[in-house]
Design a protein that fits this description.
- With 318 residues, the chain is of the alpha/beta class.
- The chain has 14 helices and eight strands.
- Strands 1, 2, 3, 4, 5, 6, 7 and 8 form an eight-stranded mixed β-sheet that branches.
- Helix 1 packs antiparallel against helix 2, helix 6 packs parallel to helix 8 and helix 10 crosses helix 11.
- It starts with 7 loop residues before the first helix and ends in a 9-residue tail after the last helix.
Length: 318
């Protein structure tokens, strides 16, 4: 498993423990005391590092290829998932998946950005960067959910919508903008969960919701730190400074009133204990869904409107 740069002090201590254990076994020595001392140092070092992660370090974790993907969450949290394909206009976009499933015995619509788990899969999934076809497929499923009164649950994990020529020719901006408008008026509960990166308009295309949940090491931003550094400082290598300024972490967004809940991850990230993350997120989805189901369709739309109107600080002048 890959070791992040900031994890190297932990890895070095763990390697020393491994060496001591082998030496003790080979020479039939009792080094329990020495090994226990190092294990305590490992735990202290983990607390020191993981409790003080910088925004850039959280971005590194959010981008990690072993981090659970949308389909993994769907498989773990939902039953009887049936994936739907195509936007009924142009093609099927593999970067955005969606379909119907059951959640606690109830029919729901599930949609998410799907990035790849290796190079071949990433090429197939376009690295999780949606085309217009993907956002139109998502909208088709949302409208279907609205018609049949099924809650919508979205998983956000994208660097942004695909910026290529073909996507521009087929109307990527229009497709995302239409999703924003239509999602705002859905008369069913909408819950969006940022499980990795939430990048720019590509994330917003699945992000107009009643409840926005974020995993502890997920990020949500109008632009990547590299892009911001290139624009602001004319130097992409200053990405760590830009990441600090952008306020893109789950903790920042909760304090700003954008994210509603921050879901804890195991030390080091969701990839270290996927089952624990699935279990924790399940509780948050269920509690938020039950609360939203107490509202009628007009109250759901009003709740969504109020959520976004309460973001930011502004003054009205006569």
């Amino acid at each position: 498993m890959m070791v992040f740069e900031f994890e190297k002090p932990i890895n070095e201590l763990e390697e020393k423990i491994g060496e001591l254990e082998k030496y003790a076994a080979k020479n039939k020595l009792d080094l329990t005391k020495e090994i226990s001392f190092l294990e305590e140092k490992v735990n202290d070092k983990k607390d020191e590092i993981y409790n003080n992660l910088t925004p850039w370090q959280r971005i590194e974790i959010a981008r990690y290829v072993k981090r659970p993907t949308a389909l993994e969450y769907v498989e773990a949290l939902f039953d009887d998932f049936i994936e739907f394909f195509g936007d009924r206009v142009h093609s099927n976009d593999e970067a955005i998946i969606g379909g119907i499933a059951t959640y606690k015995g109830e029919a729901v619509t599930v949609i998410g950005h799907q990035r790849g788990k290796d190079t071949k899969d990433n090429i197939k999934r376009n690295f999780g960067m949606g085309h217009p076809d993907g956002y139109r497929k998502a909208l088709r499923l949302m409208k279907q959910a609205d018609k049949f009164k099924r809650p919508v649950i979205c998983f956000i994990d994208t660097k942004g919508a695909y910026p290529g020529k073909a996507a521009e020719e087929r109307g990527i901006s229009e497709s995302i903008a239409r999703n924003l408008v239509e999602m705002a008026g859905l008369e069913v509960p909408v819950i969006s969960v940022v499980i990795g990166e939430g990048g720019s308009g590509g994330a917003l295309g699945l992000g107009v919701c009643n409840r926005l949940l974020m995993l502890e090491n997920a990020t949500y931003s109008v632009i990547s730190p590299e892009g911001a550094a290139s624009i602001l400082f004319k130097d992409a290598s200053l990405k760590e400074i830009a990441a600090e300024s952008l306020k893109i972490t789950a903790q920042d967004l909760k304090s700003l009133g954008i994210a509603d809940d921050v879901i804890d991850e195991p030390q080091g990230g969701a990839h270290n204990d996927k089952e624990k993350v699935f279990e924790t997120l399940d509780k948050y989805i269920e509690s938020n869904l039950r609360a939203l189901q107490k509202l009628n369709h007009n109250e759901l739309v009003e709740n969504r409107y109020e959520k976004y109107m309460n973001i930011g600080v502004y003054e009205e002048q006569s």
